[in-house]
Amino acid sequence: MGLRDISVWGYSAAALACLCAGGAIGWQYLVEFRYGLDQDLSDTTTESYFNLHVLLMYWLYLLPNALGAISFRAFTFIERENAKRLHAFFNTIGFIASIAGFVLIYKHQQDTYGDYGHFYTPHTYIGMITLALYWFQWIAGVFLYLIPWENFLSKDNMMRIGKLKGGFIQSHRAIGYVCFALIAVSCLLGFITNYYYGFTKNDPNHEMKNVLPFMNKSLTLIFVGMMVLLLLIVNTKYVRPKPKDTYKPQETTTLQAVVPNDKDVEKPSSTF
Asked: Which residues form a coiled coil (predicted)?
């Protein structure tokens, strides 16, 4: 393991540790002050039903996205194709969870507040932009880089797909960076909104002195984890090394193979 691998694993471990610790503290707040998952989850108007949205969007949307970004860089001990499949697997978990989390929160807001508007916080607007970009990224990634087109297309069409893949790869990476940043920012804004919304519940235990330790620790750790991971994925020194080209010297025809040996050439006859 070289310096590059040690750095990648160090950044990855630090980022994941911060993100998991921040999420755990945020969830502990929900358990202590907002019922956790103790209420009837079949009732879409309960706090616990709302907490499912937090569970899906943080633990099954943000974190798999982070793991997807890390896996392609850190897991150099597995083949590139397997790392690509692992990257796709993590992002597919995020894709499914993001859809479920969106449907869930839309239903909760509709059933709880009726005609009250859905879009009234920065978390909502940034979250919607993030979902649209992430869904586009997932669909484009599957279409271009996961489907084995060589089994279905002609050689000419495969050349067109190859040009499209090569032309889009830089955009795919850039959109991936932006997606992770937006997901993390959206989660931060969601936690902030949720913390301050708790003060409107007229709960005597939900006082600033009780809530601030949860809020400060969770938000700080999530922010630090987000920044560490961004430092990793945007640094070109830590991209996955390209496979080494295996050079096989081309067999060349030797002069001896072209020019016959003098011994094998019959001497001209002296008779006419």
From this structure: none
* Integer Cα distance of 79 and 187 in angstroms: 33
Q: Which residues contact 179 (CB under 8 A, 6 or more apart)?
A: 65, 130, 133, 134, 137
Share of the chain above pLDDT 90, in %: 73
Hey, what CATH topology would domain 3-241 get?
Four Helix Bundle (Hemerythrin (Met), subunit A) (1.20.120)
Spatial separation of the C-alpha atoms in residues 148 and 166, rounded to whole Å: 15
**Measured between alpha carbons, how far is 58 from 156 in angstroms, rounded to an integer?**
43
- Which tens digit of pLDDT belongs to each residue from 66-104? 999 999 899 999 998 999 999 999 999 999 999 999 999
Closest alpha carbon to 47 in 62, 68, 32: 32
pTM score, whole prediction: 0.85
- Residue 176 one-letter amino acid: G
The domain locations on the chain are 3-241
d(C-alpha 270, C-alpha 58), whole Å:
98
CA proximity to 53, closest of 118, 91, 110, 105: 105
Residue with tokens 């050079």: 247
pLDDT digits (tens, 9 = 90+) for 60-71: 999 999 999 999
